[in-house]
Structure formats: structure tokens, C-alpha cells
């Protein structure tokens, strides 16, 4: 599913969290929203998800206008930084949750959960409870849970933010592999330049509620559009 945001504005009082933002996210891509704290990344992601409403502008998913659609109508999987796992459910039941509430046949649920646990490397941990997992394992469980219902779009808001550098790096590689396998259109919010450069097909650099530049990691690094992008990525204009 492609995502298209056109002329998005969002104000908090006089403050513009999104200032005339337009972005096209191609089907099957892994696109990062990169920018410093307060640049509007989460606001843009939440707007795509339907968790925040725009003051003006529009959002289309696969050519269908969803500007006023509820989150449930958008077929989207989320992983936010402080992801709320069900503490009283096992890893397996956490991953199965979305399928069970959709009343999928038992055999289908079991097969899908087996497949996902395998992909995220948690087969040996499926009977544990979330509190018995490491931070990285919990994030992988969160990703499996989000993917269980075959979302058309996966939105990740700083999903690895709280983890240490080594675990982040492993998860980045793992996210890239996962994306290459399932091809779900993915939008990753991050303030980490290296993370964006490492995992993305495309990067949108945000600053003060505006998009400064959109392109491939190479485009941005080799041909930054302005001094902000250059200094933020640590390259030279
Ligand atoms: P980022 O995710 O890039 O750090 P956000 O999208 O969360 O940035 O926020 C962009 C700006 O909008 C910030 O300055 C933030 O303080 C402001 N903002 C976000 N949500 C609210 C809110 N509910 N009320 C007031 N200001 C907000
Ligand atoms: Mg944020």
C-alpha cells in the first residue's frame, strides 16, 4: 500500500507541529522520518495512523482518502516506543492476540504465530511472559504482534529508542531482513541518523514541522539539499 500525505498542517495553539507537509511513500518501501526532537515526526506518523487529526491537508492510503477514517479503518500495524505488551499473556498469546480477537480459525492462528515466532527468533521464548524477556526480545515480540494481522502498513515510532547501541544495531539489521521478507510498507520514525541511513530505502528529513528533503540514503548523504540536512547527517554540502 502506498501512502500519500498532501499539504498537511497541524497546529498546537500558534505552534506549527506540521507546516504544509507533503510526502509520497511508495508501496513496499521502508521509509524513515528523520529529524531532531520536536521536528514533527511523531505528529506525522500519528496523523497517518489516524491517532491525530490534521487541521488541513489530506492522507490517502493506496489512493483512497482516509483523512477522516478511524485508525481501525486504515489497516495499520503500530509499534510505539513504550509498547504495551499484555503482561499476563505469554509471548505466544501476545503475538496471537490480534488474530484471536478477529476470530480467525484456530489452525490458521497457530500456523501464523509459528511462522512469526520463527521469523523474529522467539520460538524458544514463546512460553515466557514479557517481563522475562530482554528489551530487544520484547521489541521483536511487538513487531511480530503488529505483523500478525497482515497490516498493509507498519508504523514504528522510535521502536528501538530505549535500547543500548549493540541491541539497536541487531534490531536494525533484523528489521531490514524482516522488511525484505514481508514487503509491508513501513514508516520508521527515528532521530538516529545512522539508523535511518542503515535501514531505509528512503528518508524524509524533518525540521520544525517541515520536510527539508526526501530521497534515498545516498541522495541525502551525497547531495544534501541544504546546510541543515548536511549538518544533521554529518556530511558536507
Ligand atoms: P518529534 O516526534 O519529532 O519529537 P512531535 O511530533 O512529537 O515531534 O512534536 C512536534 C512539536 O509539537 C513539539 O514541539 C511538541 O512539543 C509539539 N506537540 C506535540 N504534541 C503536542 C500536544 N498534544 N500539545 C501541544 N504540543 C504538542
Ligand atoms: Mg516523537
TrEMBL record:
Record key words, sorted: ATP-binding, Cell membrane, Membrane, Nucleotide-binding, Sulfate transport, Translocase, Transport
GO cellular component: ATP-binding cassette (ABC) transporter complex
Residue ranges of domain ABC transporter in the record: 3-233
MF annotations from Gene Ontology: ABC-type sulfate transporter activity; ATP binding; ATP hydrolysis activity
Parts forming coiled coils: none
Domain of life: Bacteria
Protein name per the record: Sulfate ABC transporter ATP-binding protein
Organism of derivation: Gordonia asplenii
Encoding gene, per UniProt annotation: cysA
Full-protein residues shown: 1 to 237 of 330
Amino acid at each position: 500500500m502506498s501512502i500519500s500525505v498532501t499539504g498537511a498542517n497541524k497546529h498546537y495553539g500558534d505552534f506549527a507541529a506540521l507546516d504544509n507537509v507533503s510526502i509520497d511513500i511508495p508501496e513496499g518501501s521502508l521509509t524513515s522520518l528523520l529529524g531532531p526532537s520536536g521536528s514533527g515526526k511523531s505528529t506525522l506518523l500519528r496523523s497517518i495512523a489516524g491517532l491525530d487529526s490534521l487541521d488541513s491537508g489530506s492522507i490517502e492510503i493506496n489512493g483512497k482518502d482516509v483523512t477522516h477514517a478511524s485508525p481501525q479503518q486504515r489497516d495499520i500495524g503500530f509499534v510505539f516506543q513504550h509498547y504495551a505488551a499484555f503482561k499476563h499473556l505469554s509471548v505466544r498469546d501476545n503475538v496471537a492476540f490480534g488474530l484471536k480477537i478477529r476470530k480467525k480459525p484456530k489452525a490458521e492462528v497457530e500456523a501464523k504465530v509459528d511462522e512469526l515466532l520463527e521469523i523474529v527468533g522467539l520460538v524458544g521464548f514463546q512460553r515466557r511472559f514479557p517481563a522475562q524477556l530482554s528489551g530487544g526480545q520484547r521489541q521483536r515480540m511487538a513487531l511480530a504482534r503488529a505483523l500478525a494481522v497482515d497490516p498493509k502498513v507498519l508504523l514504528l515510532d522510535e521502536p528501538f529508542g530505549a535500547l543500548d547501541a549493540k541491541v539497536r544495531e541487531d534490531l536494525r539489521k533484523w528489521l531490514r531482513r524482516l522488511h525484505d521478507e514481508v514487503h509491508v510498507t513501513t514508516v520508521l520514525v527515528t532521530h538516529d541518523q545512522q539508523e535511518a541511513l542503515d535501514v531505509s530505502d528512503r528518508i524524509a528529513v524533518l525540521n520544525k514541522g517541515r520536510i527539508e528533503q526526501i530521497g534515498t540514503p545516498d541522495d541525502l548523504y551525497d547531495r544534501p539539499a541544504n546546510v541543515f540536512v548536511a549538518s544533521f547527517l554529518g556530511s558536507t554540502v
